[in-house]
Amino acid sequence: MCGTVADDQIKSLEAHARVIRFSNEQVIYRQDDPIRSVHNLSHGIVRLDKLLSDGRRQIVGFALPGDFLGFADGEKYAFNATSLGDVAICRFEREGFFKFLTNHPFLLRRLHDRAGHELKLAQEQMTLIGRKNARGRVAGFLVMFRDRWERVNGRSATLPLPMTRLEIGDYIGLTIETVSREINHFVREKLILVVPGGIRFIDADRLVSMARQ
Amino acid sequence: MCGTVADDQIKSLEAHARVIRFSNEQVIYRQDDPIRSVHNLSHGIVRLDKLLSDGRRQIVGFALPGDFLGFADGEKYAFNATSLGDVAICRFEREGFFKFLTNHPFLLRRLHDRAGHELKLAQEQMTLIGRKNARGRVAGFLVMFRDRWERVNGRSATLPLPMTRLEIGDYIGLTIETVSREINHFVREKLILVVPGGIRFIDADRLVSMARQ
DNA sequence: CGTTGTATTGAATAGTTTCAAGGTGCGTGG
DNA sequence: CCACGCACCTTGAAACTATTCAATACAACG
User: Are A193 and A199 spatial neighbours (Cβ–Cβ below 8 Å)?
Assistant: First the structure.
């Protein structure tokens, strides 16, 4: 989208699209907003979260470039989308997008695959949160995020972690303190190294096996 | 699907479809099986679960009539599907189904909405497991399952719970004992009544407010 | 009427959260 | 350029919650 699709016909879709940029911690849309557009993330990371009435928060995902934001079954968004650092998204007017899709089955298949991918991630997250202890959750998070990151940005020595410990905790169902303790446990065990803005994997295999716990 | 869609054109799709019946605890497909068909549940309940290497299990969903089974992003199923009691599913040959879809955009939109619905359920499940205590999880499960059940079968005095306590626990990330304790706590508090094969709601409102915990 | 699978209940244990205090890094303004 | 404030992170100890282990009860079915 917005540059990633080569097909000539797609050019006409791009006419419907607008690139929008966000800086750190800006709201892209809110839970319960009416859905008027389809968003595709072209650059940066977006936090997707739900707020509970008492202030607790569940982060349901971190979107990476290429991801569509806000598949939903109704007329309202089910969660908030907020930029984590600089972000560029490609926004399509909703009905125009779907009208276009009906004439471009290839794209529709692609969107469907994307939905399937989202669903798979959500189910793996359920398994992470539902059946693993704190150590396994943190290890699982790091391994999962590295896989997704490298699929988009290629392999690199250090894995950026643009989210805070609090956000990691709100994603995997732990407190900030527990996340911190487990990360530093891995550091003491020489599985990872904490560097500014991210981590470096020393013994990824052993971390993967921790992630089974 | 298989009777639920009136459209004449759909008749030709039905030609690709086969109704298959299962009795209790039969495998419909397994995790990692190649995806050769698309399934739509027409009768009964299907358990969707992932098994971890050490024997633990995460149930990622209970499918009800009308649900498609096994949206996936790859060529393999991401989880097992097993019948809970008598089940009838409508099975389409995969490529034929997608070829048909390209010529029937209405159906494609419907499938997309369905995927969005699945995703929404998965995200609510994350919030349930990630940010709620045992009481809130069990209450949330009961309320959620009642909502879904009544959307399919209409309101009834007693809500059937065709799954065991163990399955409830494996769905909401608790042990069987904790599930039992919380259910019986609700019984003692006169919020619900346990009846053979299900429960009856006495004070649904208060249960909903427990579900916030 | 006994067997089998499922559910309940109690007591001890383990793991995570909570509360509290201190540390680190970074940008801003004096 | 240093000091200060602020946000984020780390660490320790106490409190709490869910799990584990163990025993018993119940229901369905031959």
Answer: yes
Tell me, rounded to whole angstroms, the distance of Cα B103 from its chain centroid.
29
Tell me whether residues B129 and A72 touch, CB distance under 8 A: no
Whether nucleic acid strand D comes within 7 Å of the CB of B178, the answer is: yes
- Residue A38, classed as helix, strand or coil, is strand
A55 at B interface, C-beta within 8 A: no
Q: How many CA atoms lie within 13 A of B38 on its CB side?
A: 23
SS3 content of chain A, % helix, strand, coil (to 5): 40, 30, 30
Q: Write out the H or E segment, with its range, that includes residue B47.
A: strand B37-51
Question: What digits encode the pLDDT tens for the residues B80-109?
Answer: 999 999 999 999 988 888 888 877 877 877
Tally the C-alpha atoms within 13 A of residue B22's C-alpha that lie toward its C-beta. 23
Q: How far is A130 from chain B (nearest CA, A)?
A: 4
Structure tokens at A118: 């989202």
What pLDDT digit, counting tens, does each position of A37-85 carry? 999 999 999 999 999 988 899 999 999 999 999 887 788 999 999 999 9
Check CB contact of B173 with chain A, cutoff 8 Å. Answer: yes
Confidence of residue B8 (pLDDT cuts 50, 70, 90): low
What phi and psi values does residue B32 have, to the nearest 5 degrees? 75, -5
Instruction: Calculate how close chain B gets to A86, using CA atoms only, in Å.
Output: 25
Terminal CA-CA length for chain A: 38
A39, A97, A100, A131, best to mutate vs chain B, most B CBs in 10 Å: A131
Spatial neighbors of A151 by CB under 8 A, at least 6 apart, are none
Q: Is the CB of A129 under 7 A from strand D?
A: no
pTM as predicted: 0.93
The model's confidence at residue B3, banded by pLDDT at 50, 70 and 90, is: low
Partner residue facing B73 (CB), from A58, A74, A117: A117
Q: Residue B108 is encoded by which pair of tokens?
A: 């494609």
A with B: how many residue pairs have Cβ under 8 Å apart? 128
Determine whether the distance from the CB of B181 to the nearest atom of strand D is below 7 Å. yes
Using the structure, give the distance in angstroms from the CA atom of B63 to the C1' atom of C11, rounded to a whole number.
38
